[in-house]
Structure formats: C-alpha cells, structure tokens
Design a protein that fits this description.
Radius of gyration: 26 Å
Number of strands: 20
Helix content: 25-40%
Strand content: 15-25%
Order of helices and strands: EEEHHHEHHEEEEEEEEEEEEEEEEH
Strand order of the largest sheet: 6-8-13-16-19-20
CATH architecture of the largest domain: 3 Solenoid
Number of helices: 6
Largest sheet: 6 strands, mixed
Distance between the termini: 49 Å
Structural class: alpha/beta
CATH class of the largest domain: Mainly Beta
Length: 298
C-alpha cells in the first residue's frame, strides 16, 4: 500500500525526534502509524572488505575443487567397469545393455561407499570441521565460519546422494563416525537431519527416531553458535524431536516424540522427558507409558 502526503493530517508524536536519526520516530496519519527506527543491532548495511571477498572466493573455489574430486573419484569404479564392458563384452543386441542394467545397483553401492569415505577423508584433511564453543557473526565471514560452511555443504552432498537410501543402516552410522562423530556400538540413527557430526558424542545403543533434528550449531541474532551434544548409553530420542546444542542426556534417558530439548539442558539418567520444552514425567505415569510405546514404533 502506498501513502502520499497529500492533505492527510500528519502529527508528530511527542518525544520521538532526534536530528541524528538515532532514536525511534513515530508519525501518525489519520488512523495509521508509521514507525521509523535506526538499525543499530539488526539490518545495518556494512561495506564488504577486500579480505572478506578474498575469503569467500577461496571458500567457493576450494569447495568446488574438493567436491569435484570427491565425486569424480567416487563414480570412477562404475565408469571403469562400464568402459570395460563396452569393450570386452560381446555385442549381441541385448547382452551389453543387460550387463550395464544389472550393474547399476552394485555400481551405486560402490559409489555410495566411496563417497562417504572420500567425503569424510577430505573434510578431515582440509580441516573443515565445526569448531567447538564457537560464536561468529555471519556478517564478519571469518575463517571458522567458512570452514563450518564447507563442512555443512560436504555433509549435505552425502546426505542427498547416499543418506536418502541408507539412513537407519550401518552405512549411515559409519559415515557419521568417519565424519567426526564419537559413537559407541549399536547406535541406530533413522534421521537425515543430523549435522555437525564432530560435535556429537553418543554412547552405546543410542537410538534416534525418524526425523529427529539434532546438530551442534544454532543461529541467533545473526550469529552462529556451536556446542556439543552428549547422549549417554541407551538414550532414545523419539521421532520428530529437536535437540539443541550443549545438551547432555544421562544413561537410559528417554525423550518422547515431537519434544523439544532446549540448548544447555541436562537430562537425568533413567528418566522420561516429554513436551515443548521437555519436562520430566514419572516412569509409571500415563505420559511415560505413551512415550515408551511411541519409542518402540520409532
């Protein structure tokens, strides 16, 4: 909607003017009020420095080169096999197409295994990891933030190309372990919304249900903040739950489906938590029984 001054009565509200535009200014036109305020904390436009341009340029170029090498080396075995089959397999009208068609699934399995191994190896040797206890302004474009960004992109590539088919399998858990997560034996992860793997510390038998959102970072007021997530032995997180940074859950703790564990929360061992945000409930209560039933279905 466009307002024109015209003949509308405009009244300046008292105590609202500052000649340097450093305070809030309110104007009233009829029944409408217009609020004008400076943006000292949010939305302030800043000139991008040459150093920031250089860092971002190097981040993009290095990420492109590394991901190209990782993807190319991952598909190399399949292309080598297909090239061999085109040259050495006899050429009746159906034999070569049949060989290629029947090799698609084995070729994808080889590709998936190679991709998770090479991606995890590349982020490790390049130092692309989430720095612990970080706090970086998005507008500053510092190196730790850019390293974190490259780590997230590399993880997302594997999530899309491999995780879609292999979540909840040993291969998905293996990738997260290779990608920096500290995990015990028998960990079961049925979710793709897990990031910042090197910030995760899971004990034996941890189970994450479908669509659990868990990561080692959060974005607040234009800043990226990082922290670890520690789940003790045999902790179970119900489907659709969200777990914030700097959360610690004791051994055999159960978190109900669709719950939210706020950042910095400490959950007691052998206890049941539900709700938004989570609250502790007694194990013999109806709510706890519902949680246990839902976790069995997760």
């Amino acid at each position: 909607m466009i307002f024109e001054a015209g003949n509308l009565p405009v009244k300046q509200l008292p105590g609202a003017v500052d000649s340097r535009n450093q305070k809030k200014v309110l104007f009233q036109t009829g029944n409408w009020q217009l609020l004008t305020a400076n943006s000292t904390s949010y939305g302030t436009l800043r000139r991008v420095t040459p150093a920031q341009v250089g860092r971002v340029t190097w981040m993009i170029v290095s990420l492109f080169v590394v991901e190209t090498l990782v993807f190319g080396l991952s598909v190399l075995p399949a292309f080598a096999f297909w090239s061999w089959s085109m040259e050495w397999v006899p050429n009746p009208w159906i034999l070569r197409p049949a060989v290629v068609a029947m090799s698609l699934i084995p070729a994808y399995l080889v590709f998936a295994f190679a991709l998770i191994a090479l991606s995890a190896f590349s982020t490790k040797i390049c130092g692309w990891r989430t720095a612990p206890n970080g706090a970086w302004k998005l507008s500053d474009l510092e190196w730790p933030l850019l390293d974190w960004s490259r780590y997230m992109v590399s993880t997302h590539v594997v999530r899309v190309l491999v995780g879609t088919f292999f979540r909840a399998s040993f291969l998905w858990t293996l990738y997260m372990r290779w990608n920096g997560a500290r995990m015990g034996r028998g960990v079961h992860i049925n979710s793709l919304s897990i990031s910042d793997h090197n910030m995760l510390d899971f004990g034996d038998g941890v189970v994450l249900g479908e669509n659990v959102h868990l990561s080692g970072h959060t974005v607040e007021a234009g800043m990226v903040k990082t922290g670890t997530v520690k789940l003790g032995r045999y902790v179970t997180v119900g489907l659709g739950s969200m777990v914030g940074i700097n959360v610690e859950a004791g051994e055999k703790c159960q978190i109900g489906a669709m719950s939210v564990v706020l950042k910095g929360t400490r959950l007691d061992a052998e206890s049941v938590y539900v709700g938004v945000p989570v609250r502790k409930v007694e194990r013999n209560s109806p709510a706890a029984a519902t949680v246990e039933t839902a976790l069995l279905d997760a």
